[in-house]
Design brief:
Elements: H1 5-22, E1 27-31, E2 35-51, E3 55-63, E4 67-72, E5 75-80, E6 84-91, E7 103-109, E8 112-136, H2 140-161
Antiparallel strand pairs: 1-8, 2-8, 3-7, 3-8, 4-5, 6-8
Helix pairs in contact: 1-2
Length: 162
């Protein structure tokens, strides 16, 4: 066996550990159902998020453009959809970190079920949707354990070489 074999094993272990650190967290993309609003609206539930572990939720709100056709039996009519303004976005007591009114970013959201609520106004009938990405936040304990394991691995390798 070559005297370089322990170095190869240690190098492979370090490379595997570092690859684990750089792997991005799994992200879940969520697209809400349409929310119809008119006039002034306050704390309307736009979407519901189920968070499994501490996560960041980042997304945006869009207004439908154009017109929508409705049918009630044999009656059909068109509704022109108006843009509106969003004045507030909330998520279960978490502070929105995005300064824009059509974007939102909630950080370090604990596990649980949350409702994304919006307030604002429109001159006519409007349809809103939200799109969000939920990505888990790596726990500090996991990184600490990885670094401690690398330290033990380095200590063992050094002892073998002496």
């Amino acid at each position: 066996m070559s005297s370089f074999m322990p170095f190869k094993s240690a190098l492979a272990a370090v490379a595997a550990a570092m690859a684990g650190l750089s792997t991005p967290a799994l992200a879940v993309t969520d697209l809400s159902d349409p929310l119809w609003v008119s006039g002034t609206f306050v704390d309307r539930v736009l979407d519901t998020f189920v968070v499994g572990s501490t996560s960041n939720i980042v997304g945006g709100i869009s207004w439908a453009q154009g017109s929508a056709a409705f049918a009630f039996g044999s009656l059909v009519f068109n509704q022109v959809l108006e843009d509106g303004q969003v004045s507030a976005v909330g998520l279960g007591g978490y502070q929105d970190q995005d300064a824009s009114l059509l974007g939102f970013r909630f950080e370090q959201v604990a596990a649980g079920t949350y409702h994304l609520v919006v307030s604002g106004s429109t001159d006519g009938v409007s349809v809103m949707r939200s799109a969000a990405e939920i990505s888990s936040v790596p726990e500090p304990e996991s990184t600490a354990m990885l670094l401690a394991g690398l330290g033990v691995l380095g200590f063992v390798m050094r002892r073998r070489l002496e």
